Amino acid sequence: MKVLVFYVSKFQYTPQQKSLDIAPDNHNGTQTIEDAVLAFIHVEPSDQEESLKSRDKKLANHLKWCCRKNDTKKVVIHSFAHLSEAKADWEFTKELLDNCEQRLLNVGYETHQTPFGYFLDLHMDAPGNSLARLWKTL
To answer: Phi first, then psi: what are they for 4, rounded to 5°?
Structure first.
């Protein structure tokens, strides 16, 4: 799994086009989140060789660490299948992201997950702090 994290003072997205037929037609339209850690997450085929629980736990722990470093309790989870050449099955990816989100909610984080299966218009303000941009292979 590859994770590219930004601390964002403001992040806005608008669903534009379905990328998966299974994506629901209804979504919440344009959303804006402030003072958050924004995680672009690419789940790889090798992640499917390990237990789902171990992968979502590792991701949640990394996101909590990023939040502590940026003094926020807000996380935006965004499936981003463009950080590696191969990607995991969409079913596994969606379940991993949902499980990670639930782990974060269970310990008091405010979470947002961008609509899965959509291309989005993205707007973000990301300050130039030293830990405001992090990349990691998990």
So the answer is: -115, 120
